[in-house]
Each structure stands twice: as C-alpha cells, then as structure tokens.
Amino acid sequence: MRAKQAGQSPLLLLDVISALKKEGIEYAVIGALAAAVYGTIRASADADALISFSVGQLAKLAQILKKKGFATELRRGDPDDPIPAMLIISDQYDNRVDLLVGLRGLDPSVHSRTVAIPFRGEQVRFLGREDFIATKCFAGGPQDIEDARVAIRTAGGSLDLDLLRRVTRRFGRGAADVLEQVLDG
User: Fold this and answer.
1) Which of 18, 45, 102, 171 could crosslink 138 through cysteines, CB 3.0-4.6 Å?
2) pTM tops 0.70
3) Residue 58's CB: how many other CB atoms inside 10 A?
C-alpha cells in the first residue's frame, strides 16, 4: 500500500490500477484528477476511474482488492441510473477510489483514446480530452460545465470537434445542447 495517511487517494488509485492491470481490466481516470490534466485544479477527497468490466465480475475484483487489504463496497445503480454499478475502494486512512462500471451513452471505443500521463513512476491512463468534455456536458452541473470550458480553452487548436460532437451526441440531446452552448460561449 502506497498511501501512508489521509488525503492520498491518488496513491490508493495507483494500487488499484496495479490490480486492474494484473486482471487485464481497461480503465480511464476521470473526475477531479482528469480535470487537473485538462486545466482545472481543485481539491477532491477521492479518485475516480471508469472501467471496462461487467457488473457481474465486480464481486471477483472486490475480493482481489480485499485480499490486498482494502475495504470494498459494491453499489448497483437503479435501472434509470446512468452508472450501472460502482465499486468503492478505501484504505485504513479513508482514502477512496470509485470505479464506475460504464456510463450510459459512453462511446465503446473510449479506451482507445485514453492518454498516458506519468505519475509516481507509473503510466496512468486518463480519459481523452474529447471524451472528458463529453462526459462533463452529460453531467451538466455548473462545475462540470466549467471543467468542459477550461478543457476546450486549454486545448487550443488540438481539439477534434467532429469527434467531440459525435461522442457527446451519444449521451443524448441534452448533452449535445450543453456542448454547443459551451462552444459558443
């Protein structure tokens, strides 16, 4: 275990990523850590990642992480929930990692567009910029919209607008409308 005190959820994330890699599970870091990669720095008590894994296999992953000394809690979403399930991992210091099992509307090829960022000697996979912006437009809260604006602004000319619009439309009309407002403003 890398974390030695509270406030070290990114270190717990590294331990979780090691287990995911060993099991051959694709992941992409999202949330506040991904926002930092794309220009928005803010405090967060946890670390979040999307995983490509079936809900039915989560119990196995939970057992693997428990054997490593972590606490786990499996939450299943309601039928209308955009997140089918989430595995919450915590350590003795109350550091926390949330693994989201999919997201309704997410482009199935999202993992092919992740970007590797070095962190503490490891290559950590983050959600690609266009997918990050699309998920923020889907979430639609004030902080999410600001994160999307900052990510667009910091992209300069490197943003693939066709890809961005395509992956955002997968989340529905509401997300697509939010994106157009963000792009216009």
Assistant:
1) 171
2) yes
3) 21
Report the distance separating Cα 133 and Cα 164, nearest Å. Answer: 8
The number of C-alpha atoms within 13 Å of 122 and in the hemisphere containing its C-beta is 15
What's the CA gap between 61 and 18, in Å, rounded? 12
Instruction: State how far the Cα of 33 lies from the Cα of 19, in Å rounded to an integer.
Output: 19
26 forms bridges with which residues in the sheet? 52
Which candidate, 26, 47, 50, places its Cα nearest to that of 36?
A: 47
Instruction: Decide if 134 contacts 147 (C-beta within 8 A).
Output: no
Please give the pLDDT value at position 182.
97
Tokens 């008590």 locate to 45
